[in-house]
Amino acid sequence: MSSEKIIHCGPCSFDDVTKEAGRWCTNCEEGLCEDCEHVHRKSKISRNHRVISIEDYRKIENVSISLICSANSRQSAALFDLQEMIERTLYNVKQRIKNRESATKEMEKQELTVKTMVFESRMIINGHLDRLQDKLLNELTSTSDTCKSKYLKILQKLKSTAEMLTKLREQTLHMKQFSSDIQVFLGTRQFNRLIESEIKSMKDEIGPIKDYELKVENHSIIEKLLNEVEEFGQI
Predict the structure, then answer these.
(1) Is there a domain that residue 92 lies in?
(2) Distance from first CA to last CA of the chain, Å, rounded?
(3) For 225-234, how does the pLDDT look when each residue is reduced to its tens digit (9 = 90+)?
(4) Which segments constitute the B box-type domain (predicted)?
(5) What's the predicted TM-score (pTM) here?
(6) 62, 81, 113 — which closes off a domain?
(7) Which of 157, 158, 184, 200 is the most exposed place for a label (fewest CB within 10 A)?
(8) For residue 167, what are the domain limits?
């Protein structure tokens, strides 16, 4: 037979009934028979109590208080270490969150600064290009005016010559109809001298007639900007 002490059911003993316990309530610190265990679990007060087997209870029944305290102390130390690790880790995580939030705000500020620099650089470049464009267009207007002035001078001379020749033609027709031979002879010589003089004057004034052509050649740097520069800058 077993030499282990029989553990009786606490509630049954209270009613002066001796009944061997099969379970042990660690909260009430008393044994429970099968019937009392069912009642124990149904009761609102005790339904959350921890109930273990008698075999498990016997394993801890004779454990000394010092060992229990030592175990509790180790558990407390372990829990303290766990709590400390959780707090330390949580603190580090929160610090990293603050750090990344701060870094994000700083990144937004830097982005705005870079955008402002790009816009300002673009405005400066646009302003410089506008000035270069105005200068080139002024040169174009001046050159065009010079060429047109030369054309106008030639036109005026040619129109003057055409007007004189028209009059000579009319005079020649009149002379042919109404003048004597000697008058025709003398008039012809005079008209020839006038025409030769006018041709010489026209050549001296206008020289060889030529057409002007306006073209533009972009600066090599402008060409590079259009054909070679593929980035405004680098981040």
Answers:
(1) no
(2) 89
(3) 888 878 878 8
(4) 4-54
(5) 0.50
(6) 62
(7) 200
(8) 98-227
